[in-house]
Amino acid sequence: MFKRLSKIIGLRKKENSSSNTAMAADKKQPMVEGIPTDINDLKARVRREFDRCEDIVIRTLEIGQDNFIEMLVVYFDGLVNKDTLNAHVLRPLLIDARIVPLDKSVNKRTIVNIIERNLLDNCEILELTDFNQCVQNILSGNTVLFTEGSDIALATCTKGFATRSVDKPDTESSVRGSREGFVESFRVNTSLLRRRIRTSSLKIEEMTIGQQTNTKVGIAYVEGIVNKRIVDEVISRLSKIKIDGVLGSGTLEELIQDAPLSLMPTVANSEKPDKVAGKLLEGRVAIITDGSPFVLTVPCLFIEAFQTSEDYYSLPFIASFIRMLRFIAFVISMYGPAFYVAMVGFHQSVVPFKLVVTIAAARQGLPFSPFTEAFIMGLTFELLREAGIRMPKPVGQAVSIVGALVLGEASIRAGITGAPMVIVTAITAICSFILTPYTDLLPFARFALLIAANVLGLIGIALVSAAGLVHLCSLRSFGVPFMAPFAPLNLSGLKDTFIRAPLWTMFTRPKELTGIHPDQNRVRMALEISPEDYDGNE
Amino acid sequence: MITAAFIIGIFILIMITDLPYLISEKKKSRLLIIYLFFILSGIILGILLDTTNPPENPSTLITNMVNFIIGSN
Amino acid sequence: MQKVRLSGIQLGMLFVGFLYGSSSLLNPAFSALQDGWLAFLIGWMLGIIIIAVYISIYLLNPSQTLIGILKSNFGRFLGTVIGILYAWYFLHLAAIVLRDFGEFSLLVILPNTPLPFIIGCFAALCVYSLKKGIEVTARTGELLIPLIPLASLIVTLGIARLIDFSNIKPVLANGIKPVLTTGFGVLSFPFGETVCFLMVFPLLRKRSTLRKTVFISTVIAGLLLLIIVVRDILALNPQLTQRAAFPAELASKLFPVINIYPLILLNLLIGGTIKVIVCLYASAAAITELSGLSDYKALLSSITGFSVTLSIWLYDNVMQMFEFAVSTYPYYALPFQIIIPVLLLIISIIRRTSERRKTS
Lengths: 538, 73, 360
Fold this sequence. Notes:
The complex is a heterotrimer of chains A (538), B (73) and C (360). With 538 residues, chain A is of the alpha+beta class. Chain A is 43% helix and 11% strand. Chain A folds into three domains: 39-156, no CATH class; 186-300, no CATH class; 316-477, no CATH class. In chain A, strands 1-2-4-5-3 form a five-stranded antiparallel β-sheet, with helices on both faces. Chain A has a five-stranded antiparallel β-sheet with strand order 6-7-9-10-8, with helices on both faces. The longest helix of chain A is centred in the C-terminal third of the chain and has 33 residues, at 442-474. The radius of gyration of chain A is 30 Å and the shape is elongated. Chain B has one domain (2-70). Chain B is an all-alpha fold and 73 residues long. Chain C is mainly α. Chain C has a single domain (8-345), classed as Amino acid/polyamine transporter I. In chain C, 73% of the residues lie in helices and 0% in strands. The mean pLDDT of chain C is 87.
């Protein structure tokens, strides 16, 4: 019996640890397949590959003097920019080719080189020898030219499909920061990063993930700052993924998570290029997924949710004040209802007497216990929030009006909830929106604490929070303790936590991220620059 | 009776959560002896405590022992 | 498996939390009435000496746990027997602290909740955090233990208006003897209980920092406790302190406007949890090492389950709990805290010198 159990548990563990073995289809890596030289074979091969793909365009050209060479132009309608294709691929081949003497004296094998070097005026051309690569190129929007008698195909960049232009990010808005947000297109996203960090040290490695979707994924980091071990870990985790489709960065996020069963995300995401650039400069690794405007950054620390790019653009005192507000908001939105229930149910003596009387008066004649009340109100709020997000915009207005009425006046008038409970729910709700990364997981913590508070009062709250804290401390994100720099304590790291110290005091890069290498230059800011230099009493 | 069932239930729960550790240990028989010793003594003690005539508690025993050794004053 | 290592600051935090633990609730020096501060000072000094003994034992037998030290100094058989006794002592200590916690909650906050349920919840938290590893526990401690002095500072400031220096008089009214007896009690609770840490010391990353870390944390914890002892004497009447079940709770009730016993609770929960965790770890690790098993986590929850039942069995009522803590516990703990460690130290020194003679 033991053995069988161990097998089951062993199996489960394996699934957890590699997080994706179950999905690993035993699809073999495609072998290298040469390109047929005979034009008829080639046509048949291409037709077979794209059988019933009715948006494919396969066009035969005859170029050169006496039209002695047949060429095949293959592309997907809708993925290519037809103007580019006409002007820079077809026109040179069909018209300009007459200027270059392409006659029968030219060897059919070298003609490809002539076309590539002398004829096509398109900027990006790839030589391909593997048929599967050709297919990949066609699928990603390039136009592939096959030439009769040659086993080399040319892929020219004619990508042109409808994409969204760079726009304001919806999830993270800022007042002073840059207003650009990432978009769905991979190249645009890399360019947004490249434009901010203009150094050859910014490396962007690319890989393809997803056996059906073949999604392009980029791993960006700044060499010399990043901890090489983290990069290796990211690459090894990503290359282990064998899944049919990666349709958004969320899929990757889930599959490279350190603790897949934890509520807490150990991978951060952002829509703002300036934020991601800042994280890269702190030694993090960014993962850009094609088709998703959210760029993932690892390692992710607990404190990151409290830091916004805005903090670094405004003055240290203001930024520190807002940081502290965020911490207060976090505490309120987690403990609000639980504390209310504990105070009303168990610890009336802790609350000042007058307040007790007020609350008792408000609760006069209410049908439900504080716990039930808090539970119902919390649930109602979550329902309203979800409805507000998913509803089409014009209807969303109606939802918020109804919500305000339900949560507010009407429920008190009807004698279903007390006014104090409505206040608590409202404050909790407002505070939970301040910390966008944790908005979705705060309800879990809130309800767990609520139940604990109903059973054991403050002791319950304390026990559940302690257990949660132990869990947080046990987490690691790509080898970095999740609660750093609090635990393990790193005094110099604390400068960027509860407060945002002036930039000139944070002159070293975060130690827990970059790791300790004696050879590495850890200083991110020259020490000579401090306010004393601007005194003017020289 | 209900208390006894409750105590046994809790200790079984403990054993279930411990299964992975029990399996990964190499010296299984030795571990099981010690493990079951604690579990069973916990269960028996728990059940005895619920009866109307619980066993003399260890503090009294220790107090008597200490008084015997140092001579009570 | 990655080897567990604690940093100096983590060990120090554990040490402070352990010493402060339940002693912040049960004023260790209250039986000496107005001379409690003197008794505490004596106990503290003796405590520093006995902790120095523990450190020397460990430094003379580096990278060995208490069980290993016992076996190599007393021989295999005697060492194992004493080791089993120590495992029992740690287990018993965990049960005592669990009971303290349960009684406090029962008396002050949750009068209608069954005691086993409270203790069980408390123990479940300890098991959960130890199953995550002692390193994780230490990291959590690093976060939480700095809150302890904050809480006691607030309480102390809040009742500062009640301070009456005449409470301290008359000094030594009943002679020196009760003061010495209480001082001895302070030595056994809490300072002598750090014998548990002989199981934790080998986890320290840098052995060279051990002495400094432990001394600093003993001094910090001693100062914090001294503040509480002096506060209880000056602000509360000594007679009142003696009669109250939990002086700290009494102090919090005298706080103006609101009752802030949640702060006391916070103190207790942090310190008490650390203490129970260290005791349970020491016990589980000792049994694991004695029986030659590989991972203490396998035995952890069964031992905890047993110690929960033990803690309920321990006393018939609160009065017996206080009676035991004052009159029996110091004598009961004497062999574990003083006699055996001193013997160990002597044997270790003799062995060390004879080895040195042999090599030279």
